[in-house]
Predict the structure.
Amino acid sequence: MQQRTIGGREVSAIGLGGMPMSIEGRPDADRSIATIHAAVNAGVTFIDTADAYHRDAAEVGHNEELIARALRSHGDADHVLVATKGGHLRPGDGTWTQNGDPTYIKEAAKASAQRLGVDSIGLYQFHRPDPAVPYADSVGAVRDLLDEGVIQMAGISNANVEQIDQAQEILGGRLVSVQNQFSPAFRSSQGELEHCAELGIAFLPWSPLGGIANAKDLSGRHGAFQEVADAVGASVYQVTLAWELALAPTVIPIPGASRPESIRDSAGAAELTLTAEQVAWLSA
Ligand SMILES: NC(=O)c1ccc[n+]([C@@H]2O[C@H](COP(=O)([O-])OP(=O)(O)OC[C@H]3O[C@@H](n4cnc5c(N)ncnc54)[C@H](OP(=O)(O)O)[C@@H]3O)[C@@H](O)[C@H]2O)c1
């Protein structure tokens, strides 16, 4: 599988997003574990999760525990980089809330490390800016976690260009990743994608296929992607991810999956090279 880097560490160009295995509509644990095993067997070495990927408030960290369990039972997955996030919460009524309080972030990261079964988290990302807390304070907590060795690498999510620059400064140049929404249907993070490419920071498109509810509509709603898929003999999902990979060498999409077939197919996108004309047409 094609490799890219996060903070100098080599990872597969296509990652796996864990959310569909833990929120509403999730499969049983056996199918989720089979999906994570299929990802590793397909060469995926980067998995994204968050403490907030769960259904009700009593099961915070459901996805982190699932991923840790699956990687342990795989037997040959020590090389996989697991990235988790904190600062976003699900009270259990289907809504999402924020808590960017520094003390909370530090406690959340330590709880995530425990669930992941590691002394130090490979990559920890501040999930979403909290309007009630100065951004510098929340990112300052992530810097402290780095300094204390609770986390090995630091990232941010749902950040604009100004926040990327601010985080980079607060972290003393140690910001390694930015995770923002980006897909054929949602392109307003193009500016952050380009900014990360200039800075050499990994850009991780979330919901890269349009999201759990809309991924199946890719071919219908974005006809150009289906046309290219027909022309090159690939799935519309592979063409979408290959297009994202072609936008910059710093892009690492993290397609979600709850079925082994989905991630096996998505992983194939790393081997698909589109022509410059195809990329330009899909971008237009
Ligand atoms: N930072 C944030 O605020 C944030 C927000 C949302 C998501 N995320 C992260 O980004 C990840 C990806 O986003 P997402 O899961 O919301 O949406 P997505 O990746 O756009 O779509 C996921 C859905 O696409 C389907 N799919 C994936 N590959 C496929 C393939 N090759 N063929 C057919 N179907 C395929 C999966 O179906 P099956 O379920 O049937 O396998 C899955 O349910 C999440 O899992 C999460 O880790 C982060």
Q: What stands out?
A: Residues 102-116 form the longest helix (15 residues). The CA atoms of residues 102 and 176 lie 20 Å apart.
